[in-house]
Amino acid sequence: MRHTINHVSMQRGLKYSTAIGLAAATVLGLMTPAVAQEAQQTAQAVTGIEEIIVTARRREENIQQVPISITAFTADDLRKMNITTSRQLGELTPSYVEDSVYGRDRGGFERLRSIPGVRAYFAEAPVGSSAGAGGYYDLENVQVLVGPQGTLFGINAVGGAILREPKRPDNKLGGYALVGAGSYNQYLLGGAINMPFVPDKIMARVAVQREKRDGFTRIASNDLYVDDVNYTAYRIGLTLKPFDGLENYTVYDTRSSHTNGPSRFLQFVNPAGFTSFAAFAIGQQEALGKSVQLGSSYAAEDTYERSRYVALVNNTTWDVTDNITLKNIFSYSHSDALDNYEWDGTTFPMIELYADQDADFGAKEVTYTEELQAQGDFLDGKLNMVVGGFMAYTGYPSPRDRCDGNRVWRSSQL
Asked: Which one, out of 17, 67, 80, 288, has a CA that is 20 to 30 A from the CA of 353?
C-alpha cells in the first residue's frame, strides 16, 4: 500500500520508523489476527510512513530501501509549504543552496554540500536548471539526491541531482482549480484536469498556472519596481497503453516569464581599480536599505528580463517478461532568455547586461537526450540490475549565440 507523508529526510526517517516497526512486530506476534491488524494500522499511523516511492536508482523503490541520502517532497508538501521555485526548495532542504544570480524567482546555480555540479531532471530526463517560477506545480513529488550521480543517470553530476516528477494521467476523471491572492497585487490562477478517454488505455492530463506580482524593490533613479513575478506555464501529458506490459508516456512542458528583472545592490569595489571612484555609493546604498536600489543606467522602459522554456519528454516502458523491463527515455528541451538590466546597482557604467534590441530572444540553448535501459529482477528480488546507454547533445542555433547568446557584458575592473 502506498502512502504519502510530509517532508522526509532519509536518515531521520530510517531511524525513527525502524524503532517503531520492531516494537510493533514483537507485539503483533502475541496477538490474534484481528487485534494484530488493528495494532498494525495504529503503528502505521504513529510512524506516518507506509511506503514512499522514489526513483533515485532509476526504478520505483521504497525510500527506506534506497542507500542514498534523499530528501523527498510530496505534492501536498509542495502546496502546504508554498514551494514554487528551486530557491524556496533550497530553504527547506538540508545542504542545498541555490545561487540565484538572475534574481529571486529564476533558476540559478545549485550546490549540495557546497559542491557544484547539480543536475536537474524532469520526468526522468535532464532538462537544464531545476526551474524558477512556474516549475513546481502539478508535481507528483520532488526528490533531492545528495552526492555524486552519473552511473545510473547518464550525465555526470558530482554534487547531486534534483528530480521533478509530474503527475501522470490516470483512470479517474477529475481535476482541481487554484485561486490565490496576496500583497503587492499578487494573484495566482491554476488548475488541472485528468481525462481517461479510454480507461487504462488512453489517458490525458492538462495543467496550467499563471502568477503575477508587482515588484517590492524600487530603483531610486528611474522609480521602477523590480523583483516582480509574471509568468505563465502549462503542461500536457498523454499516456498510452496499447496492450498489457507496454506503456508510453509523453509530456510537453512550457513556461514563459517577462519581468522587470532582479534588484542589485553595490556592496564593494576594488580600491585600486578604475571603479574606486564609486566607493562613496556603498554608503549611500547602505543608508537606503534593501527596499530601494540606488540607481540604474537604464530607463524604466528599457529594463526587463524575459525567459522561455520548452521541454518534450517521451518515456516508453515494456515489460518483456516478469523479470525483464526495457525502458527508453527521449527528451528535447529549448531554453532562451533576453536580459536588459543593471548589475552593479548604480547609475555608473560599470557592469551592465545589454540585450540585442532587434532580437526576439537570445542566449538560446537546445538539448537532445536519448537513454535506453534494461532492468532486471532475479532470484526473488535478491539480484537487481540496470544496463543501458545514454547520449546527450547540446547546441546553439547560431555561432553568435555561442558567445553568451545575445547578451553583451560591459564591465570595469571592480
From this structure: 288
